Amino acid sequence: MKDLIESIAKALVDKPEAVSVHEVEGEKTTIIELRVAKEDLGKVIGKQGRTAQAMRTILTAVGTKIGKHCNLEILE
Fold it and tell me: 27-73 pLDDT, tens per residue?
């Protein structure tokens, strides 16, 4: 899941080298923390949060398949 979010984020931003993804795993929940350059934050979030919501939907689908709940946090 970490690699999936990283590849999506790198495709969206102008500075792909600034993308960093950290995965925090619990028993039933996985939190994916995504950091991008400050000027690319809007591209990852999208208009009215649509891009971020699409990434969260993909994570939910993958998490359902493996039996875990997944959260995406976009950090500054």
Answer: 889 999 999 999 999 999 999 999 999 999 999 999 899 888 999 99
Query: How many residues make up the chain in this entry?
Result: 76
pTM of the model: 0.88
Question: Nearest to residue 8, comparing CAs of 64, 39, 65, 53?
Answer: 53
**DSSP assignments along 25-70, one per residue:** E-SSEEEEEEE--GGGHHHHH-GGGHHHHHHHHHHHHHHHHHT-EE
- The answer on pLDDT for 1 being more than 90 is no
If 0-12 CB within 10 Å is exposed, 13-18 middle and 19+ buried, where does residue 55 land? Answer: buried
Single out the residue of 71, 65, 61, 58 nearest to residue 30, CA to CA.
71
Nearest 10 degrees: Cα torsion 49, 50, 51, 52: 50
